[in-house]
Amino acid sequence: MSDPLRLGVSELRQAYRRRALSPVEVTRAYLDRIAARNDHLHAYIEVYAESALAQARASEQRLASGLPAGLLEGVPLALKDLLHIEGRRTTAGSTVFAGREPSPLTSTVAARLMGAGAVVLGKANLVEFAYGGWGTNQGMRSPVNPWDGAVERCVGGSSSGSGVAVSAGLAAGAIGTDTGGSVRIPSAFCGLTGLKTTQGRVSNFGVDLVSHTLDTVGPMAWTAEDAALLLQAMHGPDPHDPATLAQPPEDFLSALHKGIAGLRISVAPASILGAVEPAIAQAVDEAVRVLLSLGCLRRDEAFASIDFVADQAETGVIISSEAYAEHGHLLEGSPPRGDAAARARLLSGATIPAPRYAAALRERQRRIRDFARVFEHTDLLVLPTLPVTARPLATIDESDLAPSRLTRFVGYHGLAAIALPCGLSPEGLPLSLQLVAPAFHEARLLRAGVAFQSATAFHRARPSSF
Question: Is the pTM of this model over 0.85?
Protein backbone atom coordinates (compact mmCIF):
# COMPACT_ATOMS: atom_id res chain seq x y z
CA MET A 1 0.00 0.00 0.00
CA SER A 2 1.88 3.05 -1.33
CA ASP A 3 0.46 5.87 0.80
CA PRO A 4 -1.58 4.97 3.88
CA LEU A 5 -2.18 8.66 4.54
CA ARG A 6 -4.59 8.76 1.59
CA LEU A 7 -6.90 6.31 3.37
CA GLY A 8 -9.97 7.30 5.34
CA VAL A 9 -11.15 5.89 8.64
CA SER A 10 -13.08 2.99 7.12
CA GLU A 11 -10.26 2.05 4.75
CA LEU A 12 -7.70 2.10 7.55
CA ARG A 13 -9.86 -0.21 9.65
CA GLN A 14 -10.06 -2.67 6.76
CA ALA A 15 -6.30 -2.50 6.15
CA TYR A 16 -5.58 -3.19 9.82
CA ARG A 17 -7.86 -6.21 9.85
CA ARG A 18 -6.17 -7.61 6.74
CA ARG A 19 -2.79 -6.97 8.43
CA ALA A 20 -1.88 -4.89 5.37
CA LEU A 21 -0.91 -2.01 7.66
CA SER A 22 -0.07 -1.60 11.33
CA PRO A 23 -1.25 1.20 13.62
CA VAL A 24 2.32 1.96 14.64
CA GLU A 25 3.61 2.46 11.10
CA VAL A 26 0.57 4.55 10.17
CA THR A 27 0.87 6.71 13.28
CA ARG A 28 4.57 7.26 12.60
CA ALA A 29 3.76 8.25 9.03
CA TYR A 30 1.25 10.83 10.27
CA LEU A 31 3.67 12.19 12.86
CA ASP A 32 6.40 12.51 10.22
CA ARG A 33 4.05 14.40 7.92
CA ILE A 34 2.92 16.66 10.75
CA ALA A 35 6.56 17.43 11.57
CA ALA A 36 7.23 18.29 7.94
CA ARG A 37 4.15 20.40 7.20
CA ASN A 38 2.56 21.78 10.36
CA ASP A 39 4.88 24.79 10.59
CA HIS A 40 3.37 26.02 7.33
CA LEU A 41 -0.21 24.76 7.61
CA HIS A 42 -0.76 25.55 11.33
CA ALA A 43 -3.19 22.66 11.72
CA TYR A 44 -2.10 21.63 15.22
CA ILE A 45 -1.59 23.68 18.35
CA GLU A 46 0.03 20.74 20.14
CA VAL A 47 1.14 17.29 18.95
CA TYR A 48 1.21 14.29 21.29
CA ALA A 49 3.84 12.19 19.54
CA GLU A 50 4.88 10.04 22.50
CA SER A 51 1.41 9.19 23.74
CA ALA A 52 0.11 8.70 20.20
CA LEU A 53 2.76 6.05 19.56
CA ALA A 54 1.96 4.41 22.90
CA GLN A 55 -1.72 4.25 21.93
CA ALA A 56 -0.79 2.85 18.53
CA ARG A 57 1.36 0.14 20.09
CA ALA A 58 -1.51 -0.86 22.37
CA SER A 59 -3.83 -1.07 19.36
CA GLU A 60 -1.30 -3.13 17.45
CA GLN A 61 -1.01 -5.57 20.33
CA ARG A 62 -4.78 -5.96 20.57
CA LEU A 63 -5.07 -6.59 16.84
CA ALA A 64 -2.15 -9.06 16.83
CA SER A 65 -3.38 -10.98 19.86
CA GLY A 66 -6.87 -11.48 18.49
CA LEU A 67 -8.45 -9.58 21.37
CA PRO A 68 -11.67 -7.72 20.53
CA ALA A 69 -10.75 -4.61 18.58
CA GLY A 70 -12.35 -1.26 19.21
CA LEU A 71 -14.47 0.36 16.53
CA LEU A 72 -11.67 2.85 15.81
CA GLU A 73 -8.73 0.65 16.73
CA GLY A 74 -5.50 2.35 15.67
CA VAL A 75 -7.17 5.19 13.72
CA PRO A 76 -5.21 8.47 14.14
CA LEU A 77 -7.41 11.50 14.87
CA ALA A 78 -7.09 15.21 15.57
CA LEU A 79 -9.28 16.81 18.26
CA LYS A 80 -10.29 20.46 18.17
CA ASP A 81 -8.60 22.24 21.05
CA LEU A 82 -11.87 22.77 22.90
CA LEU A 83 -12.04 19.15 24.02
CA HIS A 84 -10.35 18.52 27.34
CA ILE A 85 -7.99 15.61 27.92
CA GLU A 86 -6.72 15.00 31.44
CA GLY A 87 -3.16 16.23 31.83
CA ARG A 88 -3.27 18.28 28.61
CA ARG A 89 -3.71 22.00 28.22
CA THR A 90 -6.83 23.24 26.41
CA THR A 91 -6.33 26.64 24.75
CA ALA A 92 -9.65 27.25 22.94
CA GLY A 93 -7.43 28.82 20.30
CA SER A 94 -6.63 31.76 22.58
CA THR A 95 -3.36 33.26 23.76
CA VAL A 96 -5.21 34.01 27.01
CA PHE A 97 -4.89 30.31 27.80
CA ALA A 98 -1.24 29.95 26.79
CA GLY A 99 -0.30 29.31 30.42
CA ARG A 100 -3.43 27.40 31.37
CA GLU A 101 -2.97 24.50 33.77
CA PRO A 102 -3.35 20.98 32.33
CA SER A 103 -6.94 19.81 32.47
CA PRO A 104 -8.07 17.69 35.43
CA LEU A 105 -10.72 15.95 33.30
CA THR A 106 -11.28 14.27 29.96
CA SER A 107 -14.24 15.20 27.78
CA THR A 108 -16.76 12.44 27.18
CA VAL A 109 -16.10 12.58 23.44
CA ALA A 110 -12.34 12.16 23.84
CA ALA A 111 -12.82 9.36 26.38
CA ARG A 112 -15.19 7.47 24.11
CA LEU A 113 -12.97 7.84 21.05
CA MET A 114 -9.91 6.63 22.92
CA GLY A 115 -12.00 3.87 24.48
CA ALA A 116 -12.84 2.76 20.94
CA GLY A 117 -9.11 2.49 20.17
CA ALA A 118 -8.53 5.81 18.43
CA VAL A 119 -5.04 7.32 18.47
CA VAL A 120 -5.09 11.02 19.42
CA LEU A 121 -2.36 12.76 17.44
CA GLY A 122 -2.89 16.12 19.09
CA LYS A 123 -5.07 19.19 19.46
CA ALA A 124 -6.16 21.05 16.35
CA ASN A 125 -6.04 24.82 15.88
CA LEU A 126 -9.20 26.91 15.72
CA VAL A 127 -10.55 30.45 15.63
CA GLU A 128 -9.97 32.15 18.98
CA PHE A 129 -12.73 31.07 21.38
CA ALA A 130 -14.30 29.21 18.41
CA TYR A 131 -16.00 32.39 17.22
CA GLY A 132 -15.56 33.00 13.49
CA GLY A 133 -16.42 31.59 10.08
CA TRP A 134 -13.37 32.37 7.96
CA GLY A 135 -10.95 30.32 10.09
CA THR A 136 -8.41 33.04 10.83
CA ASN A 137 -6.53 33.38 14.11
CA GLN A 138 -4.01 36.19 14.43
CA GLY A 139 -2.88 35.09 17.87
CA MET A 140 -2.23 31.39 17.20
CA ARG A 141 -1.47 31.69 13.44
CA SER A 142 -4.18 31.10 10.88
CA PRO A 143 -4.40 27.60 9.37
CA VAL A 144 -3.69 27.47 5.63
CA ASN A 145 -5.84 25.67 3.08
CA PRO A 146 -3.79 22.89 1.42
CA TRP A 147 -5.82 22.99 -1.82
CA ASP A 148 -3.82 25.91 -3.27
CA GLY A 149 -0.04 25.62 -3.28
CA ALA A 150 0.46 29.11 -4.72
CA VAL A 151 -1.86 31.29 -2.63
CA GLU A 152 -2.51 30.99 1.10
CA ARG A 153 -6.29 30.65 1.33
CA CYS A 154 -8.75 30.46 4.18
CA VAL A 155 -9.85 27.20 5.70
CA GLY A 156 -13.15 28.24 7.27
CA GLY A 157 -13.96 28.20 10.94
CA SER A 158 -14.16 27.73 13.62
CA SER A 159 -12.88 24.11 13.36
CA SER A 160 -10.13 25.31 11.03
CA GLY A 161 -7.25 23.14 12.17
CA SER A 162 -9.45 20.04 12.13
CA GLY A 163 -10.25 20.70 8.47
CA VAL A 164 -6.60 21.20 7.54
CA ALA A 165 -5.48 18.16 9.53
CA VAL A 166 -7.61 15.79 7.48
CA SER A 167 -7.41 17.47 4.08
CA ALA A 168 -3.62 17.82 4.23
CA GLY A 169 -3.07 14.22 5.34
CA LEU A 170 -2.17 15.06 8.94
CA ALA A 171 -4.96 12.90 10.44
CA ALA A 172 -7.34 10.22 9.20
CA GLY A 173 -10.29 12.04 10.76
CA ALA A 174 -10.98 14.89 13.12
CA ILE A 175 -13.48 16.19 15.63
CA GLY A 176 -14.88 19.70 15.46
CA THR A 177 -17.70 21.66 17.01
CA ASP A 178 -20.53 23.39 15.16
CA THR A 179 -22.41 26.42 16.50
CA GLY A 180 -23.50 28.11 13.27
CA GLY A 181 -21.52 26.08 10.76
CA SER A 182 -18.15 25.44 12.36
CA VAL A 183 -17.92 21.79 11.28
CA ARG A 184 -19.56 22.25 7.88
CA ILE A 185 -17.76 25.42 6.78
CA PRO A 186 -14.17 24.10 7.09
CA SER A 187 -15.29 20.73 5.73
CA ALA A 188 -16.66 22.53 2.66
CA PHE A 189 -13.60 24.72 2.12
CA CYS A 190 -11.33 21.67 2.54
CA GLY A 191 -13.17 19.03 0.45
CA LEU A 192 -14.34 16.95 3.43
CA THR A 193 -17.51 15.40 4.76
CA GLY A 194 -18.66 17.15 7.94
CA LEU A 195 -21.64 16.22 10.10
CA LYS A 196 -23.49 18.80 12.21
CA THR A 197 -25.17 16.75 14.91
CA THR A 198 -28.32 17.64 16.84
CA GLN A 199 -27.65 19.08 20.28
CA GLY A 200 -28.17 16.20 22.69
CA ARG A 201 -26.84 13.57 20.29
CA VAL A 202 -23.22 13.92 21.44
CA SER A 203 -22.12 14.97 24.91
CA ASN A 204 -20.75 18.47 25.44
CA PHE A 205 -19.21 17.51 28.78
CA GLY A 206 -15.58 18.59 28.98
CA VAL A 207 -15.86 20.89 25.95
CA ASP A 208 -15.16 24.62 26.18
CA LEU A 209 -18.35 26.05 24.70
CA VAL A 210 -18.91 29.31 22.90
CA SER A 211 -22.71 28.92 23.03
CA HIS A 212 -24.32 26.48 25.45
CA THR A 213 -27.59 26.84 23.53
CA LEU A 214 -26.22 25.97 20.08
CA ASP A 215 -22.88 24.13 20.32
CA THR A 216 -22.64 20.57 19.03
CA VAL A 217 -19.70 18.19 18.54
CA GLY A 218 -19.35 16.43 15.19
CA PRO A 219 -17.00 14.42 12.96
CA MET A 220 -14.97 15.63 9.98
CA ALA A 221 -13.58 13.05 7.56
CA TRP A 222 -13.25 12.11 3.90
CA THR A 223 -16.50 10.16 3.64
CA ALA A 224 -19.93 9.79 5.16
CA GLU A 225 -19.03 6.24 6.16
CA ASP A 226 -16.02 7.58 8.05
CA ALA A 227 -18.25 10.14 9.75
CA ALA A 228 -20.70 7.42 10.71
CA LEU A 229 -17.94 5.40 12.38
CA LEU A 230 -16.78 8.41 14.38
CA LEU A 231 -20.32 9.29 15.41
CA GLN A 232 -21.05 5.71 16.39
CA ALA A 233 -18.10 5.74 18.77
CA MET A 234 -18.78 9.06 20.46
CA HIS A 235 -22.56 9.52 20.66
CA GLY A 236 -25.03 8.44 23.32
CA PRO A 237 -26.43 9.35 26.73
CA ASP A 238 -24.01 10.85 29.22
CA PRO A 239 -25.01 11.56 32.84
CA HIS A 240 -22.58 14.51 32.77
CA ASP A 241 -24.68 16.17 30.03
CA PRO A 242 -28.43 16.07 30.77
CA ALA A 243 -29.27 17.13 27.20
CA THR A 244 -28.18 13.68 25.99
CA LEU A 245 -30.33 11.64 28.36
CA ALA A 246 -33.54 11.73 26.30
CA GLN A 247 -31.96 10.03 23.27
CA PRO A 248 -31.04 6.34 23.45
CA PRO A 249 -27.98 5.02 21.62
CA GLU A 250 -28.53 4.42 17.93
CA ASP A 251 -26.98 2.14 15.30
CA PHE A 252 -25.68 4.42 12.56
CA LEU A 253 -23.89 1.66 10.65
CA SER A 254 -26.35 -1.12 9.84
CA ALA A 255 -28.47 0.86 7.36
CA LEU A 256 -25.70 2.93 5.80
CA HIS A 257 -25.84 1.15 2.43
CA LYS A 258 -29.59 0.68 2.07
CA GLY A 259 -29.99 3.47 -0.45
CA ILE A 260 -32.25 6.51 -0.55
CA ALA A 261 -34.94 5.62 -3.08
CA GLY A 262 -38.18 7.31 -2.07
CA LEU A 263 -36.65 10.07 0.05
CA ARG A 264 -38.31 13.42 -0.64
CA ILE A 265 -35.87 16.27 -1.29
CA SER A 266 -36.50 20.00 -1.44
CA VAL A 267 -33.93 21.88 -3.51
CA ALA A 268 -32.85 25.47 -2.92
CA PRO A 269 -34.63 27.81 -5.33
CA ALA A 270 -33.05 30.12 -7.89
CA SER A 271 -33.13 33.00 -5.42
CA ILE A 272 -30.55 31.12 -3.34
CA LEU A 273 -28.54 29.45 -6.08
CA GLY A 274 -28.35 32.73 -7.97
CA ALA A 275 -26.60 34.35 -5.01
CA VAL A 276 -23.71 31.87 -4.87
CA GLU A 277 -20.65 31.53 -7.09
CA PRO A 278 -21.65 30.05 -10.47
CA ALA A 279 -19.45 26.97 -10.07
CA ILE A 280 -21.17 26.19 -6.77
CA ALA A 281 -24.65 26.56 -8.25
CA GLN A 282 -23.73 24.30 -11.16
CA ALA A 283 -22.22 21.66 -8.86
CA VAL A 284 -25.33 21.63 -6.66
CA ASP A 285 -27.55 21.32 -9.73
CA GLU A 286 -25.52 18.32 -10.90
CA ALA A 287 -25.63 16.81 -7.40
CA VAL A 288 -29.41 17.08 -7.40
CA ARG A 289 -29.51 15.10 -10.64
CA VAL A 290 -27.44 12.41 -8.93
CA LEU A 291 -29.83 12.28 -5.99
CA LEU A 292 -32.81 11.99 -8.33
CA SER A 293 -31.08 9.20 -10.25
CA LEU A 294 -30.76 7.35 -6.92
CA GLY A 295 -34.53 7.43 -6.50
CA CYS A 296 -35.15 10.61 -4.54
CA LEU A 297 -38.42 12.46 -5.16
CA ARG A 298 -38.33 16.22 -5.62
CA ARG A 299 -40.59 18.43 -3.46
CA ASP A 300 -39.51 22.07 -3.58
CA GLU A 301 -41.93 24.03 -1.42
CA ALA A 302 -39.93 23.85 1.83
CA PHE A 303 -37.57 26.81 1.35
CA ALA A 304 -40.37 29.36 1.54
CA SER A 305 -40.22 28.90 5.33
CA ILE A 306 -36.54 29.87 5.68
CA ASP A 307 -35.38 33.44 6.25
CA PHE A 308 -31.61 33.04 6.03
CA VAL A 309 -30.85 36.67 6.90
CA ALA A 310 -33.08 36.75 9.98
CA ASP A 311 -31.90 33.35 11.19
CA GLN A 312 -28.27 34.42 10.79
CA ALA A 313 -28.88 37.61 12.75
CA GLU A 314 -30.84 35.94 15.55
CA THR A 315 -28.17 33.27 15.86
CA GLY A 316 -25.61 36.04 16.20
CA VAL A 317 -27.50 37.54 19.14
CA ILE A 318 -27.47 34.21 20.97
CA ILE A 319 -23.84 33.39 20.21
CA SER A 320 -22.52 36.85 21.11
CA SER A 321 -24.47 36.97 24.38
CA GLU A 322 -23.37 33.53 25.51
CA ALA A 323 -19.79 33.89 24.29
CA TYR A 324 -19.41 37.12 26.24
CA ALA A 325 -20.93 35.56 29.35
CA GLU A 326 -18.49 32.64 29.07
CA HIS A 327 -15.28 34.39 28.05
CA GLY A 328 -15.73 38.16 28.31
CA HIS A 329 -14.02 38.40 31.70
CA LEU A 330 -10.86 36.94 30.15
CA LEU A 331 -10.47 40.02 27.97
CA GLU A 332 -10.70 42.59 30.76
CA GLY A 333 -7.62 44.60 31.67
CA SER A 334 -4.65 43.96 29.39
CA PRO A 335 -4.96 40.47 27.93
CA PRO A 336 -2.20 39.14 25.69
CA ARG A 337 -2.53 39.98 22.02
CA GLY A 338 -4.80 37.63 20.10
CA ASP A 339 -7.29 37.66 17.28
CA ALA A 340 -8.81 41.14 17.09
CA ALA A 341 -11.75 40.09 14.92
CA ALA A 342 -12.83 37.18 17.11
CA ARG A 343 -12.49 39.31 20.24
CA ALA A 344 -14.58 42.10 18.71
CA ARG A 345 -17.34 39.61 17.93
CA LEU A 346 -17.20 38.24 21.45
CA LEU A 347 -17.12 41.65 23.14
CA SER A 348 -20.15 42.79 21.14
CA GLY A 349 -22.15 40.56 23.48
CA ALA A 350 -21.67 43.14 26.21
CA THR A 351 -23.93 45.54 24.31
CA ILE A 352 -26.86 43.12 24.01
CA PRO A 353 -29.44 43.81 26.75
CA ALA A 354 -30.64 40.84 28.77
CA PRO A 355 -34.26 41.30 27.56
CA ARG A 356 -33.06 41.14 23.94
CA TYR A 357 -31.19 37.90 24.63
CA ALA A 358 -34.16 36.39 26.47
CA ALA A 359 -36.48 37.39 23.62
CA ALA A 360 -34.12 35.74 21.12
CA LEU A 361 -34.29 32.46 23.04
CA ARG A 362 -38.09 32.59 23.23
CA GLU A 363 -38.41 33.39 19.55
CA ARG A 364 -36.08 30.54 18.68
CA GLN A 365 -38.28 28.03 20.48
CA ARG A 366 -41.33 29.31 18.62
CA ARG A 367 -39.51 29.11 15.29
CA ILE A 368 -38.30 25.58 16.03
CA ARG A 369 -41.89 24.44 16.54
CA ASP A 370 -43.04 26.19 13.37
CA PHE A 371 -40.14 24.94 11.28
CA ALA A 372 -40.84 21.32 12.20
CA ARG A 373 -43.82 21.48 9.84
CA VAL A 374 -41.43 21.81 6.91
CA PHE A 375 -40.46 18.18 7.29
CA GLU A 376 -44.05 17.01 7.01
CA HIS A 377 -43.60 17.46 3.27
CA THR A 378 -39.93 16.68 2.73
CA ASP A 379 -37.18 14.48 4.16
CA LEU A 380 -34.09 16.48 3.19
CA LEU A 381 -33.32 20.07 2.28
CA VAL A 382 -30.67 20.37 -0.45
CA LEU A 383 -28.59 23.52 -0.84
CA PRO A 384 -24.96 24.68 -1.05
CA THR A 385 -22.94 24.58 2.12
CA LEU A 386 -21.19 27.82 1.19
CA PRO A 387 -21.91 30.66 -1.24
CA VAL A 388 -18.19 31.18 -1.93
CA THR A 389 -15.00 29.20 -2.45
CA ALA A 390 -11.91 29.58 -0.28
CA ARG A 391 -10.61 33.15 -0.48
CA PRO A 392 -6.99 34.31 -0.08
CA LEU A 393 -6.19 34.96 3.56
CA ALA A 394 -4.84 38.40 2.65
CA THR A 395 -8.24 39.50 1.31
CA ILE A 396 -10.50 38.30 4.13
CA ASP A 397 -13.04 40.85 5.35
CA GLU A 398 -13.95 39.74 8.85
CA SER A 399 -17.20 41.73 8.76
CA ASP A 400 -18.39 39.61 5.81
CA LEU A 401 -20.66 36.85 7.15
CA ALA A 402 -20.71 34.93 3.86
CA PRO A 403 -19.37 31.63 5.28
CA SER A 404 -22.32 31.20 7.66
CA ARG A 405 -25.03 32.60 5.40
CA LEU A 406 -26.38 29.16 4.48
CA THR A 407 -25.38 27.24 7.61
CA ARG A 408 -26.58 29.18 10.65
CA PHE A 409 -30.26 28.39 10.16
CA VAL A 410 -29.54 24.70 10.88
CA GLY A 411 -28.43 25.25 14.46
CA TYR A 412 -30.98 27.99 15.00
CA HIS A 413 -33.83 25.59 14.17
CA GLY A 414 -32.26 22.68 16.06
CA LEU A 415 -31.66 20.55 12.95
CA ALA A 416 -28.95 18.18 11.73
CA ALA A 417 -26.93 18.61 8.52
CA ILE A 418 -24.10 17.15 6.50
CA ALA A 419 -21.61 18.80 4.14
CA LEU A 420 -20.52 16.63 1.19
CA PRO A 421 -17.85 17.30 -1.46
CA CYS A 422 -19.57 17.82 -4.81
CA GLY A 423 -16.88 19.07 -7.18
CA LEU A 424 -13.98 21.42 -7.78
CA SER A 425 -14.05 25.00 -9.02
CA PRO A 426 -12.14 26.05 -12.17
CA GLU A 427 -9.32 27.05 -9.77
CA GLY A 428 -9.30 23.55 -8.26
CA LEU A 429 -10.98 24.54 -4.99
CA PRO A 430 -13.51 22.25 -3.27
CA LEU A 431 -17.25 22.74 -3.70
CA SER A 432 -19.77 21.44 -1.20
CA LEU A 433 -23.36 20.23 -1.02
CA GLN A 434 -25.37 20.58 2.20
CA LEU A 435 -28.17 18.21 3.18
CA VAL A 436 -30.38 19.16 6.13
CA ALA A 437 -32.65 16.80 8.11
CA PRO A 438 -34.90 17.07 11.16
CA ALA A 439 -33.46 16.85 14.65
CA PHE A 440 -31.89 13.49 15.52
CA HIS A 441 -32.04 12.21 11.92
CA GLU A 442 -28.27 11.89 11.53
CA ALA A 443 -28.77 8.32 10.25
CA ARG A 444 -30.77 9.66 7.30
CA LEU A 445 -28.05 12.17 6.47
CA LEU A 446 -25.30 9.58 6.68
CA ARG A 447 -27.25 7.13 4.51
CA ALA A 448 -27.82 9.87 1.93
CA GLY A 449 -24.14 10.78 2.06
CA VAL A 450 -23.05 7.20 1.50
CA ALA A 451 -25.47 6.83 -1.43
CA PHE A 452 -24.26 10.07 -3.01
CA GLN A 453 -20.62 9.14 -2.56
CA SER A 454 -21.21 5.65 -3.98
CA ALA A 455 -22.40 7.35 -7.17
CA THR A 456 -19.70 10.06 -7.33
CA ALA A 457 -15.96 10.36 -6.79
CA PHE A 458 -15.64 13.89 -5.42
CA HIS A 459 -14.70 12.60 -1.95
CA ARG A 460 -11.67 10.87 -3.47
CA ALA A 461 -10.08 14.13 -4.67
CA ARG A 462 -7.00 15.22 -2.77
CA PRO A 463 -4.95 18.43 -2.84
CA SER A 464 -2.14 18.36 -5.42
CA SER A 465 0.38 18.73 -2.59
CA PHE A 466 -0.95 15.63 -0.81
Answer: yes
